[in-house]
Amino acid sequence: MSTIVDLRSDTVTRPTPGMRQAMFDAEVGDDVFGDDPTVNALQERVAAMTGHDAALYMPTGTQSNLCGLLAHCQRGEEYIVGQLAHTYRYEGGGAAVLGSIQPQPLLQDAHGRMALSDIAAAIKPDDSHFARSRLLCLENTWNGHVMPHDYLTGAAALARERGLAVHLDGARVFNAAVANAGESGDAAAALRRITDVFDSVSVCFSKGLGAPMGSALCGSKELIARAHRIRKMTGGGLRQAGVVAAAALYALDHHVDRLWQDHAMAQRLAAGLQDLPGLSVRSAHTNIVFLDVTEGRGPALLAYLKAAGVLATGMLGLRFVTHLDVDAAGIDRAIAAIRAFAQQS
User: Fold this and answer.
1) Confidence (pLDDT) at 295
2) Is residue 12 domain-resident?
3) Is residue 321 part of a domain?
4) Is 4 a domain residue?
5) Alpha carbon distance, N-terminus to C-terminus of the chain
6) How many angstroms separate the CA atoms of 218 and 117, rounded?
7) What are phi and psi of 281, to 5 degrees?
């Protein structure tokens, strides 16, 4: 383990020895010509896992979501989305800038849910005064929260009744699946139960699964064909991408079921931070813990932790994300540093 306890995100992981070997051994071709066998195997695998007809490997989750949005919507149309959702707030406005697609952001509750009544009210009538509502975007997990299945199905049913398609930003959907699987441990079935709700799903390999890069957009053959053209236009044509696709395949084989360990480490962290003066754990779900710091001392705590070899971020309060490169000893070190700060302040 590194001497640094890096809890900034689950994107900071290094490939494991087994993953590096899989990358070294990867059979490759030229994916622009469609003949990289490892990329093709990954696309077939993730399409089957999510219950969709096809999938398209992407360099990043932002590009995967962007290609999905642009494949669903035309210029002058709109997507309905949470005001704090990643596809609206944290992806550079790409759908509006590059696709002339209007976002219609809605308020979310503390668990990331838009009220169904708000969604219904936001869907525009078919009138030339309005951008045409085409797509509802949801996210699971959202800030670590697992979306309840009845909420996902209810929102999707409402959207489809009004003629909208439904897209899932599933950057951490494997975390949601493992959490939903619970004691049964059947993450594959739990994943399908989520992804079957959606017309398209973006999944990420570089977050909880620990691959160095990559996401995949899953959907119908027609949607993926449109997304393939958009991926090219946005600079996402890939050549010998099997080297990194092999890491994603390895992650699907070895790093899904172990996500429960990351969830346990998040709970260990949250439990160790209870009842500290000036600090409160706002939420701790799946692999993400949020910590509120009173009197504007969040930056001071971040600086104190950095000096102690513990890294976090200051997004929406202090955020700590567990992952496969952080063990119990690292969590305990983070707890000790935070407690020391609280007790001296």
Assistant:
1) 87
2) no
3) yes
4) no
5) 30
6) 28
7) -75, 115
CA-CA distances (angstroms) from residue 218 to 32, 60, 209, 280, 305? 18, 14, 17, 39, 39
Tell me the HSE value of 318 on the side-chain side, using a 13 A CA sphere.
28
- CATH code of the domain in which 157 resides: 3.40.640.10
Residue ranges making up the domain that contains 183: 17-254
Please tell me whether residues 289 and 182 are part of one structural domain: no
Q: How far apart are CA 91 and CA 106, in angstroms?
A: 17
Strand arrangement, sheet containing 132-139: 54-58, 215-219, 200-204, 165-170, 132-139, 77-82, 102-106
Question: How far, in Å, are 114, 146, 332 from residue 151 at the CA level?
Answer: 9, 11, 36
The answer to whether 55 and 217 have CB atoms below 8 angstroms apart is: yes
pTM of this prediction exceeds 0.85: yes
Do 273 and 238 fall into the same domain? no
Residues 265, 198, single domain; the answer is no
- For 222-247, give one letter per residue: b (16+ CB within 10 A) or e: ebbebbbebbeebebebebbbbbbbb
Same domain for 263 and 247? no
Q: Which tens digit of pLDDT belongs to each residue from 270-327?
A: 999 999 999 999 989 999 999 999 988 999 999 999 999 999 999 777 999 999 999 9
Quick one: 131 and 59 in the same domain? yes
Where among 236, 254, 272 does a domain terminate?
254
d(CA 257, CA 263): 11
Q: Please indicate, yes or no, if residue 163 is contained in any of the structural domains.
A: yes
> In terms of C-beta distances under 8 Å and separation of at least 24 residues, what long-range contacts does 222-228 make, across chains too?
223/54, 223/68, 223/71, 223/72, 223/199, 224/53, 224/54, 224/55, 224/56, 224/71, 225/54, 226/70, 226/71, 227/56, 227/67, 227/68, 227/70, 227/71, 228/56
End position of a domain, from candidates 209, 232, 254: 254
Q: What are the distances in angstroms from CA 34 to CA 242, 259, 323?
A: 11, 32, 33
